[in-house]
Amino acid sequence: xxxxxxxLAAIIAASGQALLIIKWLCVCYLIWLGLKxxxxxxxxxxxxxxxxxxxxLKTLWLQGFITSAANPKAVVFFAALFPQIIQGDxxxxxxxxxxxxxxxxxxxxxxxxxxxxxxxxADKFKGSAKAWIERGGGTFMILAAILLSIKTxxxx
Length: 156
Description:
The structure is a single chain. The chain is an all-alpha fold. It has one domain (about 1-155). The chain is about 85% helix and about 0% strand. Helix 2 crosses helix 3 (about 15-40), helix 2 (about 10-15) packs across helix 6 and helix 3 (about 15-40) runs antiparallel to helix 8 (about 125-155). It is flat and about 60 Å long.
């Protein structure tokens, strides 16, 4: 939101090189997440998988923040949204803050409910079933990275 509000979205859109760098960083991050999920699912027995500590809320929040902040489509979304709502004849910062806080509250509520539901489903899986789900999730992350890299190469 801040990047769009400050006009960085226009700079990224104008600079094909900046957008390309961001896309490739996203590809690398998705591959890293996928490999991490697969590696963690493969370590230990079924009993050890059940005993493994859950990630802390701070770790999960940071992972979600990095994933969201690295998404160039989010910058484009806000760059398209802000000019439609923010009025040029009034102070920018109060409008920006109200819009940003409103979006964060709505999106945060939705994502919290989504995360809580996913946590409930994950608790239903134990042992080797949980490991296979982790491996599948990691594989899908890597597949998403491959698809993003193919699309990035085609766009050049």
